[in-house]
Amino acid sequence: xxxxxxxxxxxxxxxxxNGHIDIVHRALCVFDxxxxxxxxxxxxxxxxxxxxxxxxxxxxxxxxxxxxxxAFEGLLVDYIKKTGACAILRGLRVIxxxxxxxxxxxxxxxxxxxxxTFFLMTDYKHLFVSSTIVKATAxxxxxxxxxxxxxxxxxxxxxxxxxxxxxx
Length: 168
Ligand code: ADP
Known about the structure:
Layout: E1 6-11, H1 18-27, E2 33-38, H2 50-60, E3 67-71, H3 76-83, E4 87-92, H4 95-111, E5 116-121, H5 131-139, H6 150-159
Parallel strand pairs: 1-2, 1-4, 2-3, 4-5
Helix pairs in contact: 2-6
Bound molecules: adenosine-5'-diphosphate.
């Protein structure tokens, strides 16, 4: 009997960027379903509420029944068990991502060994893109066009009205 292979792509998504979306699409050639799971990273201060993040993600992804958008609280592995997922999906940009990602992957394995962490390499176009640099640039009035989906661009403009948007 075929059991859907589900991957959970957890993150702060504050906000979602084209880099995140790239990773989710890449994963769909291996997994039957990818759940974009919005969590709160206690090490980070969020600009957007969970509801705002969910709305932006839903508006930004093409309608595809293989992609599900959700939020979770508490331990990621508890959420993994609840969803029946077999994999945790994380993106890698530069080598400096690796150290923290390895710690997270090993801690998650200690907490719940059946969930395997999969790393996918981002596209070179998104190598330098992070939610943090997007927020910092937008807050200082710079254009982040091309780095985030249009609905995110509009939401950033709401928060930072002086942010530049290139003419279409
Ligand atoms: P967290 O706070 O859990 O790191 P993020 O939303 O910052 O949440 O990132 C979630 C995942 O997406 C992480 O694995 C991160 O490495 C990955 N990621 C972030 N930006 C990119 C990008 N530009 N390309 C590929 N993966 C990315």
